[in-house]
Design brief:
The protein is α+β, with helices and mostly antiparallel strands. The protein has a single domain, classed as Aspartate Aminotransferase, domain 1 (Alpha-Beta Complex). Helix 2 runs parallel beside helix 8 and helix 5 packs antiparallel against helix 8.
Amino acid sequence: MERNSRDFQLRVTTENENAELLCDFFRTRRSPGPSPNGVVSPPDSSELASNPDSFVIKEVYYPKFMTPEHYQASIRPPNPATNFAGGGYGALFSLTFTSILASRTFFDALPCYKGPSLGTNFTLSCPYTILAHYGELDWAKGWGVDKGLIRISVGLEDQDLLLEWARSALGAAETAVKEAKARGESFE
């Protein structure tokens, strides 16, 4: 355990940076519309304005976008003596989508390990609501928890690789929704 903890701060810093990078990217691909209570509205995107129907992310749930002023008050400062770069927003975030089709396609296309665990050195994703509340989906919905919520715990992978994964999975979801709409299919 001691040996595994030697580079813990570096690993946590990398995971924080990786998650923030992904969340910033996903926020640029968020569909138009107001944010839920407690979530900071995303900045306007010029790409969004030109093609709002192609975006399938409904919301990015990450501490940076949810009352960040409270979170900033608790972030640990850098410590040069231990090479700790300072606290971040964490490696865990959730995405909601405009439809179950988009959620399912994104999850299936995301080329990371799948599972509900947290704290690994590699990225994991899981369909959180389906796993945690399968027998009570209506109850979860009543509390504002989307059935298609995807939870991602970000690992130590290279940032370019993580962005490639994100773009690829999001592209697959956007294409699936676009093709379903073109066929006149209705989907939730």
